[in-house]
Amino acid sequence: MIRSGNSGRRLAAIDEGPVDGPLVILLHGFPEFSYAWRNQVGPLADDGWRVLVPDQLGYNLSDKPVGLENYDIDALADDVLRLAESAGYRTFSLVGHDWGGIVAWWLALRDPDRIERLAILNAPHPATMTRYAMTHPTQMLRSWYILFFQIPGLPEALLRAGGYRMARRLLTGTSRGDAFSRHDLDHYQEAWSRPGALTAMINWYRALRKRRKLRSERVRVPTMILWGERDTALEFPLALAALRRCDQGRLFRFPNATHWLQHEEPEDVNHLLRAFLSSSPL
């Protein structure tokens, strides 16, 4: 475990693989933490990658500052750059799921010279989500929780109630039955229970009120999109919309997987990640 920080922001991160190997950073989403990539770290490290997996800001062992400005997308992207720099790297490959995917997209758009390869799991391109939802009522309905999370205090109280019953249900109720064991859920609950964690995690959504303009909507770096088609939060056309904005993009569909793709199909996900990151034929 390493801690990386600058300007008063510290991230805890798993650090595996050879210290002189090429760097790949794996970014988790809501409501997970670095444990989300437990099935991917070992195989990538075995391939010779230096693998850094942070608890993103507000999650688990990382800092949980107050103030929505701390969860601005540019600040979250800067955290990833500082993490890489703390390990001695200027360029690196990036893998992101859910909110981690949004941060990964943003970095590839804002700082394409820093990103060698980009892999996205069930996360929409930042330029597509609002446009798509405004013209597709079914997606607007699926995104109800974003508005719910804007209410002060209430989401935290409901997620915490009954021994984090609702928080656990966010995972088990939207995934296949084999995705999360009781042991896994206990790990997540321990992370959610840390002081300030729930508010910090939800502040990622509350900070959406302050919208940022993209420098470019085109992704220039080589990109692979993996998408579980049974995602209850994000409709599959968002994957197609993202692909259209990639100069060098490929999309792989998983018809029987949900939003929690890397948990449900770890072997196939690992095969695709290992081949893509090493530039091997897919």
Automatic annotation (TrEMBL):
SUPFAM superfamilies: alpha/beta-Hydrolases. Keywords: Hydrolase. Residues 22-266 form the AB hydrolase-1 domain. GO terms for molecular function: hydrolase activity. InterPro entries: AB_hydrolase_1, AB_hydrolase_fold, Epox_hydrolase-like. The keyword Hydrolase applies. It holds the Pfam family Abhydrolase_1. The keyword Hydrolase applies. PANTHER family: EPOXIDE HYDROLASE. This is Alpha/beta hydrolase. It comes from Skermanella aerolata. The lineage of its organism: Bacteria, Pseudomonadati, Pseudomonadota, Alphaproteobacteria, Rhodospirillales.
